Amino acid sequence: MSRMLFITGTSTDVGKTIATAALAATAATAGARVAVCKPAQTGVAPGEPGDLAEITRLSGVSRTLELARYPEPLAPDTAARRCGRPLLTLAETVAGIESCADADLILVEGAGGLLVRIGDFTLLDLAQKLGAPVLLVAAAGLGTLNHSELTTRALAAAGVECAGLVIGSWPAEPDLASECNRVDLPAVTGVDLVGSIPAGAGSWTADEFGAAAPSWFDPAWRARYLGS
Q1: CATH number for the segment(s) 3-225
Q2: Helices marked H in the chain — which ranges?
Q3: Helix (H, G, I), strand (E, B), or coil: what is residue 89?
Q4: What gap in Å lies between CA 179 and CA 172, rounded to an integer?
Q5: Quick one: which of 60, 141, 170, 224 is 20 to 30 A from 33 by CA?
Q6: Chain-wide mean pLDDT for the chain?
Q7: Strand pairing partners for 11?
Q8: 144-157 and 123-130 helices cross at what angle (nearest 10)?
Q9: Which of 5, 22, 23, 38 is catalytic?
Q10: Cβ partners under 8 Å of residue 60, min gap 6
Q11: Does 16 qualify as catalytic in the annotation?
């Protein structure tokens, strides 16, 4: 039976895609068969490389699944309505993810934050339906404590496991707020900080990225959730 891990963020542009690539690279390096699903991609025209292409470039994982694509950089449900396309449904998205069940690990990257509408559902609804844990990618600086606690409370209220917190872009020269947040994030959320990804890692070569990625996550956590 496949392991499954969902990746959400406290907001947009906090590093979900690079975090997903790092997870994929870490598991693949350990010999796992990895599949990555992004149900809805927005802000990318047909034929252009999207988030899954970036994940493949950095991690080497080529088994990917995108179920819908909309050209405007908006929430998927809004983008679908504006271009006249049907909304993704929870049922078809579940079926798409389950089609990857022969993989050892299925990573599912959401759009924006936990409660952004992907179609007629949110990533929280999808995680509930599949009984999957959710990894929360958070920003390093000011505002992250509130955003992170709101998201972890929503997960807890829905009975969905939060697999941990990852800082999606850790600065080379962190300011005072960022340094304090490393301590305060676990304290206010009750969820362990299980990794952090260096700022700018998305611009590294695939070899550099793949070699470093496993070191960005807690080893015990890797073994539990990635099988590596």
Answers
A1: 3.40.50.300
A2: 16-29, 51-59, 76-82, 90-98, 123-130, 144-157, 176-189, 206-212, 219-225
A3: coil
A4: 12
A5: 170
A6: 96
A7: none
A8: 40
A9: 38
A10: 25, 28, 206, 210
A11: no
